[in-house]
Amino acid sequence: MRIVFVAAPLQGHLLPLIPLAAACRDAGHDVIVASGGFPPDLLGLRTADIGAGFHLPRNALRVSLRHPRTARAEMRGVAGNDFVGEVFGRANRSLTGPLLALAERERPDLIVFESLAEAGAIVAGRLSIPSVHHETTLWPATDLFRAVTTSPALAGERIPAPALTLTVTPPSLHATAVAPTLPSSHRAAPAGSVPSSAGGGPVVSFSGGDARAVSSSGGVGSAVSSPGGAAPPGPVSSSDDGGAAGSVSSPGGAGHAGPLPSSGGTGSTRPSSYSGGAVPTGAVPFSGGAPRSVPSSGAATDGPTSVPGAAADGVALMRPVPFSGGGAVPDWLRVRGDRPRVLVSRSTLGAPNDADPAPAIIAAAAQVDAEFVLVRPAKTGKLPPNVRAVGRMPLSELLPYADAFVHHAGAGSVLGGLAAGLPQLVTPGMGDRRYNAGLLERRGAGIAVDARAITAAHLNQLLTDEELRAAAREVAAEIAAMPAPASIVPLLERLVRG
User: Fold this and answer.
1) Of 7, 151, 162, 480, which one has the fewest beta carbons inside 10 Å?
2) Can you give the pLDDT at residue 350?
3) How does DSSP classify residue 484?
4) What is the model's pLDDT at position 45?
């Protein structure tokens, strides 16, 4: 089976696809990753650069000039789907031609595309082959698909729904999604308050790492072999830019023969010196996107991983495996230090309101008994003795040796920190980041603070609040129990066989 994986040429969009792509390759299938701006290491996967015409800043500027009020709302993280739909509608128009040329040359049996790369669905439709929507954000995938495919830039295109949607958000985070007018609270919702799925088709639950078909009412679905695709509602922003068009390249050597990166590590427990209680001054109230339903609990059946129902109903749960594109890691970052270690990261997309936490961390670090590691900081200057700066490094390989994680609330960073069982401090900003920060905070696994408002009190809370750490470890266990990418491969094979 030949599979083309498609992502917008942005790091935060491309990297979440790699674990499943590598699992398909390791199962003996021919895999091509079509995107652009590739990082140093994609586990030996074959790549095709389709990004020559992709220019996110230019598209965003054009949409902002046409819709200034919506653009201002997007900068605050409260614009809904309209802005992102139009921006990525234009972006996907530029990706469709190069991707179609690639697909006509390579003749894939299946196309897998990320949440904002609907060019994959367009090309699959033109070739009359199935497509799979691989969720790469915390926003539900279906609303993003609808926002992009109904945008003015793609008017007149025939865009069939995906045959299957893979969702990577831990179900306990689904329970924290709220309507736009509802404020979040600092702690998770009370036990038992998770809504049951209302209407719609079946979803896939999990038990012991195997995907199971479960009906929306909580009953157990029978195993069949014709899954089909879509998922629940929401908006998103992006992460990086790059690209040039055209040919397929194969990395040298035998490729990646070892296992995929694991979610690893949970961080050590340390004595508490913070009293907890009220959130320190500067913590942010949130308004999220549309509510997201989660399935009622139901016993799982034995049998193959599959989704019953029509094409618009198939949704399968898959574990988000952190992967950051490889790179060298110094030895001192692969062992624990004498003090708690806090990783500090920022967005790969340079944009206004990027919510970079580093300046406030540098200002407050001297008052906190911890080691702070700034990964790829925008600027440093003179640093306190307990702050060190490093260049681009694979965060997925650093997180298992950290005790906490501070970042811009990007979906990949949130999921990576949760998989490692780390409490997080996130800085809400443009696009989906305010929504992501609200999900994390309401789950009780992190705190959300405006980037300029971070103080030593917030950092001490992050390191010593055992409720935060316990909630993070609960979600890490939940993620570890989700079906691994390798368990999804047979489902894709059945899609192609029909």
Assistant:
1) 480
2) 58
3) P
4) 97
Q: What is the pLDDT of residue 402?
A: 97
d(CA 307, CA 136): 20
Mean pLDDT of the chain: 74
Put simply, whether the predicted model's pTM sits higher than 0.85 gets the answer no
- Quote the Cα angle for 176-451-335, to 5°: 85
Return the sign of the alpha-carbon dihedral for residues 20, 26, 31, 37: positive
Q: Give the position of tokens 């060190």.
A: 388
Contacts with 176 (C-beta within 8 Å, 6 or more apart), sequence order: 184, 188, 189, 438, 439, 442, 443
User: Does residue 488 sit in helix, strand or coil?
Assistant: helix
14: three-class secondary structure by DSSP: helix
Other CB atoms within 10 Å distance of the CB of residue 471: 22
Residue 108 Cα distances to 3, 30, 111, 256, 309, angstroms: 5, 9, 7, 22, 25
Residues in the chain: 498
Residues of the chain with pLDDT under 50: 179-312
Instruction: Report the C-alpha gap between 109 and 420 in whole angstroms.
Output: 35
CA distances (Å), origin 269, targets 171, 342, 443: 26, 13, 20
* CATH code reported for the domain at 2-261+288-322+482-497: 3.40.50.2000
- Strand residue runs (E) in 94-189: 110-114, 131-134, 164-167
Would you state the pLDDT for residue 61? 75
Q: Which two tokens stand for residue 490?
A: 């047979």
Domains 2-261+288-322+482-497 and 331-480 equal at CATH topology level = yes
The token pair that represents 240 in the structure block: 């990086």
Longest dimension (CA), the chain: 63
Compute the distance between CA of residue 284 and CA of residue 149 in angstroms, rounded to an integer: 33
Dihedral (CA of 232, 236, 239, 241) sign: positive
- Residue written as tokens 């919702």? 189
Domain ranges of the chain: 2-261+288-322+482-497, 331-480
Show the CA angle centred on residue 456, arms to residues 343 and 75, nearest 5°: 70
Residue 260 has a pLDDT of 36
The partner residues of 389 in beta bridges, in order of sequence, read 374
pLDDT score for 295: 30
Second CATH level (architecture) for the domain 331-480: 3-Layer(aba) Sandwich (3.40)
Strand pairing report for 203-207 and 210-214 = antiparallel
Q: Radius of gyration over alpha carbons of the chain, in Å?
A: 21
Edge to edge, the sheet with strand 164-167 lists: 245-249, 46-50, 30-35, 2-6, 110-114, 131-134, 164-167, 315-317
Predicted pLDDT of residue 352: 57
Asked if 355 and 428 touch (Cβ cutoff 8 Å), the reply is yes
